[in-house]
Amino acid sequence: MKRIILVSNRLPVTIEKEGNSFKITPSSGGLATGLSSVSKNYQCLWLGFPGIVSGDMTDQEKKEIEQSLLEKHNCYPVHLDYQEIKNYYNGFSNKTIWPLFHYFQYYTNYENKTWEYYKEVNQKFYEELIKIITQDDIVWIHDYQLMLLPELLKNKFPSIRVGFFLHIPFPSYEIFRQLPWDREILEGILGADFIGFHTFSYVRHFLSSVQQVLGYENTFGQINTGSRIIKVDAIPMGIDYNKFARSSADGNVKREQRIIQKDLRKQKVILSVDRLDYTKGLIERLEAIDLFFTNYPDYIGKVTLIMVAVPSRTKIDSYHSLKNRVDETIGRINGKFSRIGWTPIKYMYRSINFQTLSALYSLADVTLVTPIRDGMNLVAKEYIASITNKKGVLILSEMAGVSEELGEAIIVNPNNKDEIAAALDSALQMPPNEQANRIKSMQERLKRNDIFKWASLFIEKLEATKAIEEKFGSKILTDENKQTILLSYKQSKKRVFILDYDGTLTGFKNKIEDAKPDNELYQLLSNLCKDTRNSVVIISGRTRDNLDKFFSKYPITLVAEHGAWIKDLNKEWISLVNTNLEWKKDITPILQTYVDRTPKSFIEEKTFSLVWHYRNSDIDLASIRLKELKETLISIVANLNLGILDGKKVLEIKSLDINKGKTALDIINNNSYDFIIAIGDDVTDEDIFISMPKDAHTIKVGIKNSMARHNLRDYKEVRSLLKEFTQ
Ligand code: ADQ
């Protein structure tokens, strides 16, 4: 049976010390429940921190726990020590990512030390994972504590399906860019084949950050990095609907309800249930309650707010001070409005069991869910599912992901206390048939999209990425193809390597000056040149100066400006085109206006062409300008025998007489090669592929459509192929 390995910060178990041994209790969280829907077709394993710091166990105890986790719960622990929890979990995860991704910049710390721990712990998860993984497994990684893990895994196991789901919001680019490690985080997540978010807004924000920071564009949520295809989609998490819907019929829940009702003596109930977290808007909610009793005094003595808050992240200062503020605010409001026998707020600062939670959900007249930001918020869904008597109103913050699904709730702005107070009044006055209608539509939707559907849909979408990749990768050079090429190379006497430079022999760089050849490449080229039967040609869009600077020390034929110039071994540059350059005078001022209107873009003048570079500019602005510029140029160039070349973050205007294909063909025709290989990644390299004789080996770099016979994924694969010719 195929296996799914689920990886999350915490394992779905609670481990408690009982005398001399440990008691392990499985927790019934949504994720663990949802997995049961896929367990018919897959065996599910789970990897994560067990909840006990490694220093609190002896080696013997660790072994016992490991054994029992595996045998009884299919879980593998990742042991973390006190420093790791302090810096990776409380530190980087909860003091950097959590506040920043929830738009609480004021609480966000940027510390190198915690970032280092975050990287180390992600690496630790990776090392534990590779101990158990096999090539056929599917890996599903969860949440913001493990954003570097997908890339670590993908680098080692390219063919394994890796999924990633983020449970919290993905912020807009303007917020995300404040993170000093934005690039590393995005590259980490992009190691996954399928990336899921709760809402379409988060998908949009993520795709925009990927485009701005890494330069990858997308089509309908599909990113092509050149070497890989990644699918990004909104897949809102559901709940175990039936469990909540059935719960109010449960004897224990009924008993619990009766106890609470007796205590409330016919009071109307407003319910509030959350982890105690500053993102949940507890203070704002309490202030709205204060305003509600002030503006609508008739409710005094008739309505009670039951507020349940689960202690959370108590070791972090901001949570500690929030707890004090909540205590004080509740004290102040109760002091202000209480009467003998009635207090406006009943407050529980603890976790409550399922029966009590369920009893509260089913007897609440109104549930108030008003987070300042929330990835989804399952409390809202659980409340609606628990209603069995068609009575109840949900007041929901527009800042919670769940508000995109539950439009029939009363939607409020969590910072607008007047609006919340008025919403409470409307909710308490809402006619029963209106309550019933709203509840019915929400319940039907939640029933259809429950946690089981969510988990199986995620796995389905993840599995589907394999087919997309296969479609794109159908011409990928196989080992067999490679052997054929190597054999014909060995049998030949006069060989030529026609190689593009940027993107083919080196990766695409955001800064032109970074794209210098490295030692590995120099070594590779010089080894190729050592064999006197080999000729190496580098054919690039770069200028003569550039190519001279990079390669003049090597016995390589250089072709600059897309075929306009050639320099044979130890000779001078020769121009291959004889063309009128008067057009530059007309085009330069047009390009100049685009430089002025697009900060950080610039013009490069080559002998036979003009290039507008926009790789450093804001990508959204640049793409608007690019469209405008192309439209402006199109009518002008037609009359001037010029072509427009839409390259990687450049737009080049050049004479139509210049063409890499023509020059490459000239080189071949002037020699009698019996082995020809041409490799390139650019649109301009297509001209080479088309012009080559039938028996030439042509290879496109990147998984894109091409006239070449084969594809390689990236420049690293090109280098390793070239290495094989020298062995
Ligand atoms: P959380 O921030 O923890 O989760 P939420 O979605 O509301 O928020 O889930 C809380 C869970 O805890 C619910 O299942 C609820 O029943 C339970 N709970 C809350 N208060 C409780 C109490 N006092 N006693 C017992 N149980 C209590 C993160 C994101 C959310 C996202 C989820 C799932 O922040 O936005 O919805 O993950 O992806």
Could you list the spans in which at least 5 consecutive residues all have pLDDT below 50?
none
- Tell me roughly what share of residues is in helical segments: 40-55%
Mean pLDDT: 93
* Proportion of residues in β-strands: 15-25%
Large-scale geometry: elongated
Number of DSSP strands? 29
- Numbering strands along the chain, what is their spatial order in the largest sheet? 5-4-1-6-7-8-11-10-9
- How would you classify the quaternary structure? single chain
Class from secondary-structure proportions: alpha/beta
For the largest beta-sheet, the strand count, sense and barrel status come to: 9 strands, mixed
Whole-angstrom Rg: 32 Å
The small molecules bound here are: adenosine-5'-diphosphate-glucose
Distance from N terminus to C terminus (CA atoms, Å) equals 41 Å
Quick gist of this model?
With 727 residues, the chain is an alpha/beta fold. The chain contains 25 helices and 29 strands.
